[in-house]
Specification:
The chain has about 280 residues and is of the alpha/beta class. The chain contains ten helices and 15 strands. Strands 1, 2, 3, 4, 5 and 11 form a six-stranded mixed β-sheet that branches. The chain starts with a strand and ends with a helix.
């Protein structure tokens, strides 16, 4: 069964919605209240794909998302990078001079401090970015604006009074696209492999487990640890590496990793987003 839908967390007009539209323009975006709801929409076949944010270049990883990925039953088939461009959105007829307050998610408010200070605009915390745009539209108050993606302005009939007002021009969010079925095929020159593992309870197990990647010249772009089941002694690691599991170097590195682990689960194999290489080259 296919639905041609891609599920995301948040209101219509959220940055996750923008990620869906950019990465899968042929699919219908399906808004969901929580990350768990996004995953369940795919598992229950209400949607074919899930769009999940995992990290931001300014604020780090998205809280709790790595706990959900291994238990989701879904597989990573792609990644999508979205530049976080922030617009000041207001009801029709309002001018920049009219705006005294701007509403948004607390994280986004912290990314526009310079602009807010310059124009003497007070920050108001909203539930999320697109939800704030929806609230501003419903109030019809010319002194209240929203900080959100330009897409939110289109959806809720708000005017863009200023664009790209974020303090950091390289602010980027990385999303993972997940499916019920894995796809291990090669789809480009630059492939990535993601997996989770737990090391065996022996001295220097993590050090030894990582040795295979160093000796085989495999670049590990991410390694993060987190507790399992709220127990300090149970630690799981999430890793991203460059390459495909069938690459000789990657194959040898994973074989060595298996020797020092009590569990190893492959989450996905997928092509690198072009923006990844562009950022690496500066």
């Amino acid at each position: 069964m296919t639905t041609n839908r891609i599920a995301f967390q948040g209101e219509s007009g959220a940055y996750s919605h923008e990620a869906c539209r950019n990465a899968r323009p042929e699919m219908e975006p399906l808004p969901c209240a929580t990350f768990e709801d996004v995953i369940e929409a795919v598992r229950s076949e209400k949607a074919d794909l899930a769009m999940l944010p995992v990290e931001n270049s300014t604020y780090g990883r998205v809280a709790d998302i790595h706990h959900l990925l291994p238990e989701s039953g879904l597989h990573i088939i792609d990644e999508a990078f979205v530049r976080v461009h922030i617009s000041l959105l207001a009801v029709p007829g309002a001018t920049l001079a009219d705006v005294r307050q701007a509403m948004s998610h607390t994280v986004l408010l912290g990314q526009c401090r310079g602009f807010m200070r310059k124009h003497d605009i007070r920050a108001v915390t909203g539930a999320d970015t697109a939800g704030s745009a929806k609230e501003v539209a419903s109030r019809g108050d010319t002194s209240l604006a929203a900080l959100a993606a330009p897409l939110a302005g289109e959806i809720y009939g708000l005017n863009r009074l200023a664009d790209q007002i974020e303090d950091r021009q390289n602010n980027t969010t990385r999303f993972l696209i997940m499916s019920r079925q894995p796809d291990f095929s090669r789809r480009g020159d630059q492939m990535l492999t993601s997996f989770v593992f737990r090391v065996r309870n022996i001295p220097a197990a993590l050090y030894k487990a990582m040795g295979g990647f160093a000796t085989n010249g495999v670049n590990m772009t991410k390694l993060e640890s987190y507790m399992v089941d709220g127990v300090f002694t149970a630690t799981q690691f999430y890793a991203d590496i460059e390459g495909h599991p069938e690459d000789p170097a990657v194959k040898l590195a994973l074989e060595e990793l298996r020797y020092f682990t009590s569990s190893l689960d492959l989450l996905g194999v997928y092509p690198a987003d072009p923006l990844r290489e562009a950022q690496r080259q500066g």
